[in-house]
Amino acid sequence: MEIVIENLAKVYGNAHAVRDFSVTIAKGEMVALLGPSGCGKTTTLRMVAGFIKPSAGRIVVRGRDLTGLPPHKRDTGLVFQNYALFPHLTVAENIAFGLRRRGVPAAERDTRVANMIATMQLTGLADRLPRQLSGGQQQRVAVARALVINPSILLLDEPFSNLDAKLRESTGLELRRIQRELGLTSIFVTHDQNEAMAIADRIAVMNGGAVEQIGSAVDIYERPRTRFVADFIGSANFLSATVEARDGNVVTLRHGLGVSVLPVEGQAFDKGRSVTLMVRPECVAIHPAAAEAGLGTIETISYQGSSAHIFVKLRDGDRTMLVERHGRELAGLEVGKTVDLNVKAQDLTLFAA
Amino acid sequence: MTAARPVLDAPGTDGAAASSPRLIPYVPVLLFAPCFIIYAVLFIWPQLSLLATSFVDGNQWSVAHYQRFLGDGYYWELLGRTLFLGVITTVITLVLGLPVAYLLARMQSRWAGFLLVITTFPLLVSAVVRSFGWMVLFFRDGLVSKLVVALGLASPPFQLMYTMSGVVIALAQVLLPLMVLTLYGVFRSIDRDLELAAMSLGARPSLALWLVTLRLARGGILAGSLLVFSLAISTFATPSLVGGARAHVMSTAIYEQTIELLNWPFAAALSSILLVFVLVLALVYGRVLEGRGQTEARP
Ligand SMILES: Nc1ncnc2c1ncn2[C@@H]1O[C@H](COP(=O)(O)OP(=O)(O)OP(=O)(O)O)[C@@H](O)[C@H]1O
Ligand SMILES: [Mg+2]
């Protein structure tokens, strides 16, 4: 394995910024650290870069234990959130900085810098100072500076957060293409789930310093392991349910939308237990219903072009369900109308308690 | 003014709203005016009259005072000693101030603010009082003079009072807080991530400090040095109290000419000469700063 991080932890006083962080990353893989503000993403990344000394754990890259090494001996390429370009050096000098430190001969250095400038579409900007560049150009210089040294890991801390929404997506995909081409192993931090899902091979969802789940975007969206992950990634409807019957590994659950039969594992789902069900908004079927037969009434419809979000207030209790529909399939659905909601058992995720 | 002008704006523009954009070009002038007036009345005008005084001998214009200065080796020595005092004080405060300012600026502990206050606390005590403090330590029986003898750096009857060394030590202590404050501000304005970026690209911490932080701090280091240098060559209290008549510098000589010998024109000439040095330095400083940013960093 290219990168092995084992039980990494950082404690400040009695606060755990990161706890028991473990991940193995294959060569050429891109892993995103995703989580809310303050969950320990930057701290984790900076421990890998060597700026923060871990309280516990190991970082092994290509079989070499980096844990005790200072940053300048780690061979990591780091792209900072605010780019941290050297303001007194030109674009070309910024990119050449790491090559100079490695004593690369002048001729080779010039070629590599020129190639990198071409790859990152910075042609013609070589002699500009960072302050004479747009945000997107600065971001590309920062990436170029980190890539040109052929690092064994590429680390990116919210690299796109200063770009506007359109540029963000295209820059992200462009970075992804270059990272693939060069076969770079990479960890990137973001609190933007769309970015993580669009770019990363795997996503580590963090919460309160700990990893809640690591997996592909599909895994995490369709098979969240904890309520936190389900809630943090995309939108989720939570329903409380009770176990009506258990037959081996199959349970029958009664919930606000009816009865569902699901396969389960583990002890937490015995008869009589209260559990929580999660269903994604696009998996809920909605039909207009006769006033007395419907499960709820439409409270709000938020039309967003390609899709529409429909908020339905359930008749029993005060729970509101979010239903997503195509923007063109709203016939018969209006605010105040009574509707019926249906879910399929295969779209339900079950959480104990 | 606005009311008297014909309304040229597009119909529908209301007069009050249209008048304010026209005033905008004058805003910098208006904001600048109070400071400029104070500066002109309290600095430029007295300075010019001082310069005029220096060219008066008896009742007529003359360059006699400048000839006297240039022709007398004593005054050359005086000037040399003053500039030396300026240079050595600047170097000492820079060497002592740089690490302190850097560490204070980079400290993340909540004690940082407190330590900064402690460092600059001496500024709250007048230079006269601080110089008196040094006098107590510098006399023959004073702690510091005794320590110097005990360390074998000088042989008995010895005191730091009335020596240039004494003046340098006292002046460096008086001016150090100013240097630290200036440099602190400079280092605070330099993003720590720049150093970290340099390290992640393979620079040793010391090299990262040199190639990035100190390079970027150059303007501020120059500003602090200029400040300390100008104050060191023009300050009066410390050289007068600690150096006395045996370690004369320009400022104490000017005082002597003004108060004791009542030779105001010659005192004015000495002041003008001192001012020229500060002005020349300020100009050089300006030129160096202009060139900043265009230069390449070469290891
Ligand atoms: N030097 C420090 N001393 C004490 N606590 C710290 C320190 N640095 C970070 N923390 C704490 O550690 C936790 C994790 O911080 P970190 O910067 O890693 O969060 P993050 O996930 O990057 O958040 P964001 O998305 O806001 O950048 C936070 O609760 C933070 O307050
Ligand atoms: Mg962060």
From TrEMBL, chain A:
InterPro entries: AAA+_ATPase, ABC_SmlMolc_Importer, ABC_transporter-like_ATP-bd, ABC_transporter-like_CS, Mo/tungstate-bd_C_term_dom, NA-bd_OB-fold, P-loop_NTPase, Transp-assoc_OB_typ2. Belongs to the ABC transporter superfamily. Keywords: ATP-binding, Nucleotide-binding, Transport. Residues 3-233 form the ABC transporter domain. GO terms for biological process: quaternary ammonium group transport. This is Putative spermidine/putrescine transport system ATP-binding protein. It comes from Chelatococcus asaccharovorans. SUPFAM superfamilies: MOP-like (SSF50331), P-loop containing nucleoside triphosphate hydrolases (SSF52540). Gene3D superfamilies: 2.40.50.100, Nucleic acid-binding proteins, P-loop containing nucleotide triphosphate hydrolases. The keyword Phosphoprotein does not apply. One of its GO terms (cellular component) is ATP-binding cassette (ABC) transporter complex.
From TrEMBL, chain B:
Gene3D superfamilies: MetI-like. GO terms for biological process: transmembrane transport. InterPro entries: MetI-like, MetI-like_sf. It is found in: Cell membrane. It holds the Pfam family BPD_transp_1. Keywords: Cell membrane, Membrane, Transmembrane, Transmembrane helix, Transport. Signal peptide: none annotated. It is a multi-pass membrane protein. SUPFAM superfamilies: MetI-like. One of its GO terms (cellular component) is plasma membrane. Its main location: membrane. The chain crosses the membrane at residues 23-45, 83-105, 112-139, 159-187, 207-233, 264-285. It comes from the Bacteria. Belongs to the binding-protein-dependent transport system permease family. CysTW subfamily. This is Putative spermidine/putrescine transport system permease protein.
